Amino acid sequence: MINFLKYRFIYLAVSATVILAGIFSMLRWGFVFSIDFVGGTNLQYQLSKLVPESGIRNVLQGEKVELVTLQVKQNIISVRLKAIDEKQEAQLKKDLENKLDTKITILSSETVGPVLGRETMNKTIIASLVAVVGILLYMSFAFKGLNFALAAIIALIHDFLVVVGSYSILTKFFSAQVDTLFVTAILTAMAFSVHDTIIIFDKIREYIRTEGKGNMEYYVNRALTQTLVRSTNNSMTVIFMLLALALLGGTTIHYFIIALLIGTVTGTYSSPFVATPVLIWLEKRRKK
Q1: Domains detected in the chain
Q2: pTM, to two decimals
Q3: What is the pLDDT of residues 28-48, one digit of tens each?
Q4: How do residues 251-267 score in pLDDT, each as one tens digit?
Q5: Cα 172 to Cα 207: distance, rounded to the nearest angstrom
């Protein structure tokens, strides 16, 4: 049997380093929200010839539109603006063609109003809170003790901060945007984290039921020794699949896959190395 709890302060240092780096990024650089949340217009045009980004930017700045982001790859431009209507969009396309002396093919065009964006944001927050409360109630009932549920929720918050903080860094250096796919990745990672934690906690509960309330640290180390290999193998199959998708998948799901990958890794880590040390700490406080 391996004494995993012996290294609990190393786990604390690793988690604190990653979370603090993410918090710094969130406070310093924040996020870039997609139009799903804040509203706006996304346009993707294919030009008939290569045009310098400065020329495109000059034309856009001369129009009665508010530019948010501009990306130019070869002869394809991706523009994000504050919400405009169809008439304004048609005029913008016409002016770009005339002033840049090029023919434009529309690849995609979408507009979301600010009201719909705020509604999406509110529903996302509510969904996350409902998920956390549901997990707390379920685990309190299933394990007949609040400490198991609190430990799982703390591990869940740990995973949430790691994924969100890491995504803020991706936003800064790789232009990732927070969209509904990212929310899906967050909720999926939360579910994965709790799944692994329940497996370990169920083993601990089995020892308590069959052998009585003995040395809790012994039960935890024993449970981790017996379940870690199985949990790691299960997680690795998911990680390999996500790595393949991250490397070979399309650009539309690229950051969604990366967020899922980060969530899977941190969920696999937090169940044995965050949830169980927290459980031991809570149990010791309860006995005082």
Answers
A1: 4-34+116-287 (1.20.1640.10), 40-111 (3.30.70.100)
A2: 0.83
A3: 999 888 877 777 888 999 998
A4: 778 899 999 999 999 99
A5: 47
